[in-house]
Design a protein that fits this description.
globular
């Protein structure tokens, strides 16, 4: 949780913004702005999302509405879309969440291999569910993964589609980590399930090493071959589906070096987060409990600096 900046809106629709979810250092990889906000009456706390500055708000609104209509395990449920096509926003009920980037910062470096495997299995299961129903996520990146006590959640649904129309080269799109964009999509191809598999490989590489384009030698031995196959340039060289990737992540690690202990099959239930990550989640909750929006009966006058008082309708 980060302090609001002077150019952040103080209000969005019926909500008072309390804090930013993401650190300023993470902005380059974010396709949307994310805030912790509360209803003006103080009764509801939400995670509120806005398009990235400079993005096409109408395209972002289309994807936000698509996410609102879609109910899928491990996909952050969008419950409200407002503001119209010109200045859209979306919300979901608040639960303590930590972006994957912040989780690595709280932990002090890359996550343990067993935790990466468990997170990967949950995310692969989420993608498999979407793909089975005819959808692609088209926005998976480290910034799109939020960790909770009950497991990871996917956000930023449709970020690739919202950033550029089909047929437009997408390499270097603002708000998208280029390491998460499959070559065929970077060249302007339509998002596909195998593009999602590539992006998940990049997310697992990030969780394992701290960046999305690692050297093979940097990856954990038990995940080296699997992550490497996800990041193959040719779609045909990747796992055939997210469900195949899920099976590989929950099975024994066939590519562990000779003589190395074989990791056990991933157990059921949410992955156990490291203590420092759990503490960061608890700190976020404590900070929100202490944050008080302006009273509805006695509204706080806006500060004298105009940028800090900007309102999004």
């Amino acid at each position: 949780m980060e302090r609001l900046r002077q150019d952040d809106p103080s209000h969005v629709g019926p909500y008072v913004t309390l804090a930013r979810l993401d650190a300023e250092s993470a902005e380059r990889g974010l396709p949307e702005r994310r805030f912790l906000a509360r209803g003006a009456d103080g009764r509801r706390t939400v995670l509120l999302c806005l398009p990235r500055v400079g993005a096409d708000p109408s395209r972002w609104a289309v994807e936000a509405e698509g996410a609102r209509r879609l109910r899928s395990p491990r996909l952050l449920p969008v419950t409200e879309v407002g503001g119209g096509a010109g200045s859209p926003w979306s919300t979901t009920p608040y639960t303590p969440v930590l972006p994957l980037l912040a989780a690595l910062a709280a932990y002090g470096g890359p996550l343990p291999e067993d935790l990466v495997r468990r997170l990967g299995a949950d995310l692969a299961e989420a993608l498999a569910d979407l793909h089975d129903r005819g959808f692609t996520h088209a926005g998976l990146s480290p910034a799109a993964v939020l960790l909770t006590a009950g497991g990871p959640l996917l956000t930023c649904f449709g970020a690739v589609r919202a950033a550029a129309p089909d047929g437009t080269p997408r390499s270097g799109l603002p708000g998208l980590d280029p390491g998460c964009l499959a070559l065929e999509q970077a060249a302007g191809g339509r998002p596909t399930p195998l593009g999602d598999v590539f992006a998940l490989g990049a997310v697992l590489a990030y969780a394992s090493t701290g960046h999305t384009v690692p050297e093979q030698s940097e990856l954990p031995p038990g995940l080296r071959r699997l992550i490497g196959s996800c990041l193959a340039s040719a779609p045909a060289d990747r796992p055939r589906s997210a469900r195949d990737l899920l099976h590989a992540l929950t099975a024994h690690a066939a590519d562990a070096p000779p003589g190395a202990p074989t990791p056990a099959t991933a157990p059921a239930g949410p992955p156990a987060l490291p203590g420092r990550v759990v503490a960061a989640l608890a700190a976020q909750s404590a900070g929100l409990l202490a944050a008080e929006p302006p009273s509805a009966a006695e509204p706080t006058p806006p500060p004298p600096l105009p940028p800090a008082a900007r309102k999004v309708h």
